[in-house]
Amino acid sequence: MRKTGKAIISCAVTGSIHTPTMSPYLPVTPDEIAEQSIAAIEAGAAIVHLHARDPRDGRPSPDPEIYMQFLPRIKQATDAIINITTGGAPGFTPEDRLAGPLRAKPEMTSLNMGSMNFGFFGLADKFDWQHEWERELMAGSKRFAANHTFELIERIMVELGQGCGTRFEFECYDLGHLYNLKHFVDAGLVKPPFLIQGIFGILGGIGADLENFMVFKQTADRLFGDDYLLSAFAVGRPQMKFLAQCALVGGSVRCGLEDSLYIGKGELATSNAQQVTKLRTILDALDIDVATPAEARAMLGLKGGDQVGF
């Protein structure tokens, strides 16, 4: 793992799993996504990870035109790194997943490193849903797997990585995903430095235990040596504990309403910036310096905001 001396804060602003019924503070319109992204950056995030949503009812959307309603605003207001999803949402086709990123040609996108069961069906009967699509999304995760085949991963690496100069946040939900990444590294399809994002606590992936985190780090160290930067988070309740653990061993960190809707036990976060501020306070207390967007851009070898398509 590369020793950079500073932690990069990423903020995953809205995602595709949490829904409007779950929190009134979840940003869903282009205005809300832009405003919350800018506030999170001002609070200390160097990277914002973004999904698009249909502003009419908040459902996930692959529509590039919706992305283009908030991406330029964030770029004009900040110097942060804009990171767009290629995972999209359940039911998206490969063309859906690539539509926004290929239009925007961002500095960075996420890239899930393997197909997996991705279960959140336990939430289906826990809310009085505002929209029927919300219940269908929850229940559907019991019947369908998240499809990230070797063919799709390679396509994204070629079309976005080689074709657009985009680099990746490699999302790894289990140890096998690290080995999948090593396969593509050995094939020469991606070059270091690699930002490896360990994701813990999704039903179907690795559990949110600190012991699992250390095994994950040791495996990544063995496979990638000094060629990668570690980042990691746990969904839901363990969020801040995991982030502190990752930062203590020299890693970077990701928070945001995509990953957890809460700021404390039983207390909904009122914004993404509130989570970034809490995380920044933890890092400051641990005497861990936070990277600026310019520093993060250099650490990750990104092409620069003047080379994107928006």
UniProtKB/TrEMBL annotation:
Gene3D superfamilies found in the cross-reference section: Aldolase class I
Superkingdom of this protein's organism: Bacteria
User: Keywords of this protein's UniProt record, alphabetized?
Assistant: Metal-binding, Transferase, Zinc
InterPro entries on file: Aldolase_TIM, BKACE
- What terms describe the molecular function in GO for this protein? 3-keto-5-aminohexanoate cleavage activity; metal ion binding
The answer, when asked if Glycoprotein is one of the entry's keywords, is no
What name goes with this protein? Uncharacterized protein (DUF849 family)
Q: Which Pfam families match?
A: BKACE
What does UniProt list as this organism's lineage? Bacteria, Pseudomonadati, Pseudomonadota, Alphaproteobacteria, Sphingomonadales
Per its UniProt record, the required cofactor names are: Zn(2+)
